[in-house]
Design goal:
Structural class: alpha+beta
Shape: globular
Distance between the termini: 41 Å
Largest sheet: 8 strands, antiparallel
Oligomer: single chain
Strand order of the largest sheet: 9-8-12-13-14-11-10-21
Number of helices: 8
Number of strands: 26
C-alpha cells in the first residue's frame, strides 16, 4: 500500500445514477422460468476446470495462516469460489431486474443469492444457492451510493462532511448502503444532502479514517524517480511493449522507475489519481513480463472478478503475502485529495510500501493495492483498485500462463468470426457473437485465447 513518502488515495469507477424511487425494488415484475437453474448449475460445475485452481504455494500458506485453513481446505475453497462465481453470474442474468446481489457464506464458501421477488426463490434454490428475499435491488443500492458520492463533492461543505464520513459502500448481505464515519452528524448531513430514504442507509461510527497507502513479478518492489517505493501490481503487455500496472498515486506520467535491484527499469506511461488509482509502466528491453506474483511457482491465469465473501490475498514489497476476504465491491472513500469510487474493500492488512501490489483470488488477478487502515501486526482494512478497468482503460493485456504478447488484428486461424475478441475486457451481462452463436457474459474478465465462449461455460452462456 502506502507509497513512501508521498500521499494519495484509491480508485473510481462510475456507478449508475438511479432515481430514489429505484430503492423500492421491483416486487411486481415477472419471474423467470425454471430453466435458468439448470444453466446456472452447468456453469458452476465447469468453473474450476475453466478457470484453474492451481494457486501458488505461498498463497496457500497465507490462506492457512490468515483464514485458519489446511492446505486441502484452502484448495477446496478456491474451487468452491470458482463454482459459486459462475453460478451467481448465471443467476444474475436469469433474475434480471429482481437481482439484488450475491455473496459467499462460511468456510465452505456456500453461495447466497438475493432477489426482490418471491417467485425467484425456487429458481435460486434449484440452482444450488441459498435464496434471500430483500426489499431493494442491487441497481437501486448502487444508485443510492452514487447519490452519496455526488453529495460528497457538492462544494466545501459536502467535502468536509465526506472527510468525516469517508467510507461508503453497498452491503449486499444486509441489502443496504453503509456510511462509515468518525463524526456521525457529518454522515447524517451527507445522507440528507443526497436525498436518500434514511431507512436504506446504515451509519457506522469508526475510530479511524482510511489513509492513502503509498508507499517483473507482481508484489516486487520498484522505485519512482530514485526516491519513493511502491509494489508491482501485475505484469502486462501492450503489443510488443512489456511492463506492469500499479496504483496511480505511485507516480505520474513521465516519472522514471528502477527495479528492486536499482537497475533502470522504465517509466510511467499514464497515471490517474485521485478519481481513479491506476497507472501503467512500460519497461525497457532488460525486463521481461511474467505471469507470476512474487514467485515462480504459481501463475496468474486470468482476471475473473470474484464476489463478496471470496478469499483474496495480497502480495507487497513490505509485508509479503497476507489474506482475508472480499467485503464489498463498489466502495467509495473520501481522502483529502478527493472522493474516489469503485474500489473493493477487503479484510486484508497492508503497510507502507505495499501500494500498487497484487491482489489475487486463487489464480485470478483482482486488483492493485491502494489504501486502508491498520497494519499487519494488529490487522486492518485495505482497498484495491480492480484490475480489469486498468486493462480496459489503457488497452493492456494481462500476462497469464502460456499467453503471448496479445491478440493480433482480426480473427486468427480457426476463429469462426464474430464480435468476441481476446484481450477485450467484458463485464457481466455483455453480449458477443462467436461464429453464428450469441453469448452473454456471466463474470467480468479479460478474454484470452483458450477462453472462447464455447470453451468457457463458467464465463459465457448461450443466449
Amino acid at each position: 500500500m502506502l507509497r513512501r513518502p508521498v500521499r494519495a488515495a484509491c480508485a473510481v469507477l462510475a456507478t449508475a445514477a438511479l432515481g430514489l424511487t429505484a430503492l423500492q425494488g421491483t416486487a411486481g415484475a415477472a419471474s423467470p422460468t425454471p430453466g435458468p437453474a439448470a444453466a446456472a448449475r452447468a456453469a458452476a460445475s465447469a468453473a474450476p476446470e475453466t478457470l484453474g485452481v492451481a494457486a501458488a504455494p505461498e498463497l496457500i500458506g497465507a490462506l492457512r495462516r490468515d483464514l485458519g485453513l489446511t492446505d486441502g481446505q484452502a484448495r477446496a475453497r478456491i474451487a468452491a469460489e470458482a463454482r459459486a462465481g459462475a453460478l451467481a453470474g448465471a443467476l444474475a442474468q436469469a433474475l434480471g431486474s429482481g437481482w439484488a446481489g450475491s455473496w459467499l457464506e462460511g468456510p465452505d464458501a456456500a453461495p447466497a443469492v438475493a432477489t426482490t421477488r418471491t417467485a425467484d426463490l425456487a429458481v435460486i434454490r434449484a440452482a444450488g444457492a441459498r435464496p434471500v428475499l430483500v426489499g431493494r435491488t442491487l441497481a437501486a443500492l448502487d444508485g443510492a451510493l452514487a447519490a452519496l458520492d455526488r453529495a460528497a463533492e457538492r462544494g466545501p461543505a459536502g467535502r468536509a462532511d465526506a472527510l468525516a464520513a469517508p467510507v461508503r459502500y453497498v452491503d449486499v448481505t444486509a441489502n443496504t448502503v453503509v456510511v462509515q464515519a468518525t463524526d456521525r452528524a457529518a454522515a447524517e448531513r451527507l445522507v440528507a444532502g443526497a436525498g436518500l430514504d434514511r431507512a436504506a442507509v446504515r451509519v457506522e461510527t469508526v475510530a479511524e479514517a482510511p489513509r492513502p497507502l503509498y508507499d517483473l513479478h507482481g508484489g516486487d518492489a520498484y522505485y519512482i524517480d530514485n526516491s519513493s517505493r511502491c509494489s508491482i501490481g501485475f505484469p502486462i503487455t501492450r503489443g510488443t511493449t512489456q511492463g506492469f500496472v500499479s496504483a496511480g498515486h505511485c507516480g505520474r506520467a513521465g516519472s522514471s522507475t528502477t527495479g528492486a535491484n536499482r537497475a533502470a527499469q522504465g517509466s510511467f506511461q499514464a497515471s490517474v489519481f485521485p478519481g481513479n488509482d491506476m497507472s501503467w509502466v512500460a519497461t525497457n528491453s532488460s525486463w521481461t513480463a511474467t505471469p507470476y506474483v512474487n514467485s515462480a511457482s504459481g501463475a496468474v491465469t486470468g482476471s475473473v472478478q470474484q464476489q463478496v465473501g471470496a478469499s483474496v490475498c495480497r502480495s507487497g514489497s513490505t509485508t509479503g503475502w497476507h489474506c482475508g476476504t472480499i467485503q464489498q465491491h463498489n466502495t467509495s472513500v473520501t481522502y483529502a485529495e478527493g472522493t474516489v469510487s469503485g474500489v473493493t474493500r477487503t479484510s486484508v492488512c497492508a503497510e507502507p510500501g505495499d501500494s500498487g501490489g497484487s491482489f489475487v483470488s486463487g489464480t485470478q488477478a483482482q486488483g492493485v493495492t491502494s489504501g486502508g487502515t491498520g497494519n499487519c501486526s494488529q490487522g486492518g482494512t485495505t482497498y484495491f483498485q480492480p484490475v480489469n478497468p486498468i486493462l480496459q482503460n489503457y488497452g493492456l493485456t494481462l500476462k497469464t500462463d502460456g499467453q503471448g504478447p496479445g491478440p493480433g488484428p482480426g480473427p486468427g486461424p480457426g476463429n469462426p468470426g464474430g464480435t468476441w475478441a481476446a484481450g477485450t475486457v467484458y463485464q457481466a451481462g455483455a453480449t458477443v457473437t462467436y461464429g453464428s452463436t450469441s453469448y452473454r457474459c456471466l463474470q467480468g474478465h479479460q478474454a484470452q485465447v483458450g477462453w472462447e465462449p464455447p470453451n468457457a461455460p463458467a464465463l459465457w452462456q448461450v443466449v
